[in-house]
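User: Teach me something about this protein's shape.
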Amino acid sequence: MDDFQEIADRVGIEALRGEFTDAAMMRDRPRLAALFTHDGVLRMPDVPVEFTGRDEILTGGERLQSQWDFFVQNSHPGVIRIDGDTATGRTYMHEVARLIDGRSGLNFAVYHDTYRRTAEGWRFAERVYEVRYVDTTPLAGRAPGAGGAAAPATETAEITEITETAGADGGFAAPAPAERLERAVAALRANGFTAELLNDAAAARARVKELVPEGAEVFTGASETLRLSGIAQDIETDDRYRAVRPRVLAMDRATESDRIRRLVATPDVLLASVAAVTETGSLVIASGSGSQLPACAGGAARAIWVVGAQKVVPDLGTALRRVEEHALPLESVRAQAAYGRPSAVNRLLVLNAEPQPGRGTVLLLREAVGF
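Assistant: First, the predicted structure itself:
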């Protein structure tokens, strides 16, 4: 390889690394995912997460970014070693961040990279993120809000969903530890539900594809868990299923209300999430409109609930508190942006047991996903 080719390769790899930082800062997950090869891997052992392939990098990164209040990433060039159509290198990172649960700090880290030449140019075959220093001292500054004003503390607590832990105080965003998850699964099974404990949203996404039969009429309830995991998109865009939600959204509310009501109440399969799962084996489902409650309660021939680890609580009283104090404020922010009005707990459904064997399945995750 001549010197000019090596210079061109180094420029291409440096541009790739700069594009990554820009996409991260701009929260442009599709662009960031496209910087990886189709089988590329993003590993962050200290988080801990690992995403393989562009689809996982896109949806997994979206879950992580949804916890930011603000995030600033500065990258500093490191070594590059080129070997034909592959290369290795390192990028040094200095990051400042605050999460919407109030935690903040700064860190210094290293990306250990493997690059591959493709028809699209140089792409990441692998990025491994290694944290070298962390300082969790609360930051004194603020991220500017609209018009340059600092965002109120009450606003930053309600901006969007929390996907990681809520800190040492055991808040409602914190994933339950393994022993509590296992207790919940055992109790759900004792109460007649089919319950499975899965590692993460990617595993749930794959499992749903196994559970939902081809040709089934499937209603996907409004759920950040389904959206962030990619499950809603899988069902609603795959012609192997008869997706109810896209059909309903295209129907006239004034003239077809009865047809809409029947479609959402009695699908072959309901896919949804819940507001809380108790360690005694109950599911708590809150709703502003009540549209998905009939299917949950028994109208659907089969129901599948995908549930993040942060939704496991000790008992029903704590579950109701989680609905009011945690899920409702977050859902109200989403509803305000989507519909121009806040949400409300107008209807509440508690499923204490499943009397029809095999009807209700709970896919409980070890990671926090959704509200």
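Now, about its shape. DSSP finds twelve helices and 16 strands in the chain. Confidence is low (pLDDT under 50) at residues 146-170. If you'd like, I can walk through any region in more detail.
User: That's plenty for now, thanks!
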